[in-house]
Design goal:
4-stranded mixed β-sheet; binds zinc ion; about 240 residues; 6 helices; about 35% helix
């Protein structure tokens, strides 16, 4: 079957278009990282496809939210074949048994290798992962805080990384302390940067009022797409006639 693939951009969404001899358009939102793919009849032009996808954006967002909820509920087992994320990239986990100290490293750009003792529990492996994420995240946050403290002209008295269930970051204005979520290690740099700038601005303005949003937009004009991306995970597919 003759197919031709191309990329289309719709706002901040990038859509893979696969043209082939079929009758109807088929839209799919692919796990695990939510890429949007459209299979299209050969005759449809880019603009026609763009228009059709635009009408489906609420549907796409709805399924993104559903998947995010599922993602949060399904605990990782830390076994070979699972997907794990570092700075927005997806890696396949390979578990190797070792008698030495447990360790993790990235291999060949698409693998995360976890060396763990025989019979180590998922809880123990999770702890090794957490330590690894923390080690990876700390210098990234340190650099971003330095860069943006200089730009904005405010500096936290202290900052730290911790696990939080419902927030990406918090700012204790009186203590001038910023906490950032360990989970950010899984997210793209642009998302991490958004959270850092957001929390730094809370040193100036406590509320999410107009003043706050104006400053945020001044410093990071694309903050809304970073915020969306932070909360995006997708699993969906549908066919429609046109
Ligand atoms: Zn806030």
């Amino acid at each position: 079957m003759s197919t031709k693939t191309s990329l289309l951009r719709l706002g901040n969404m990038s859509v893979l278009v696969v043209r082939k001899p079929i009758k109807n358009l088929h839209l799919a939102v692919l796990p695990p990282d939510g890429k949007v793919r459209v299979s299209s009849p050969l005759r449809l032009k880019d603009d026609e496809i763009r228009t059709l996808i635009a009408t489906r954006i609420p549907w796409i967002r709805k399924h993104q939210a559903t998947l995010l909820a599922q993602e949060r509920q399904s605990p990782r087992k830390y076994v070979s074949g699972e997907s794990h994320y570092l700075f927005g990239r997806r890696y396949r986990l390979d578990v190797e048994v070792t008698s030495g100290r447990p360790q993790i490293y990235v291999k060949n750009k698409n693998r995360i290798v976890l060396q763990a003792g025989p019979g180590s529990s998922p809880k123990r492996r999770e702890q090794v992962f957490k330590d690894w994420y923390r080690t990876a995240l700390r210098p990234v946050l340190g650099d971003l805080l330095e860069k943006w403290s200089n730009k904005i002209g405010v500096r936290p008295a202290s900052w730290g990384i911790k696990r939080m269930k419902t927030r990406w970051g918090t700012c204790q204005q009186e203590a001038e302390r910023i906490w950032l979520n360990l989970e950010l290690a899984k997210k793209p740099f642009t998302c991490i940067e958004y959270v850092v700038v957001h929390e730094l601005l809370h040193l100036i303005e406590k509320k999410h009022n107009e003043r706050f949003l104006d400053m945020l937009t001044d410093y990071l004009p694309a903050w809304r797409s970073s915020k969306e991306e932070l909360n995006r995970f997708i699993l969906a597919s549908e066919k429609w006639n046109h």
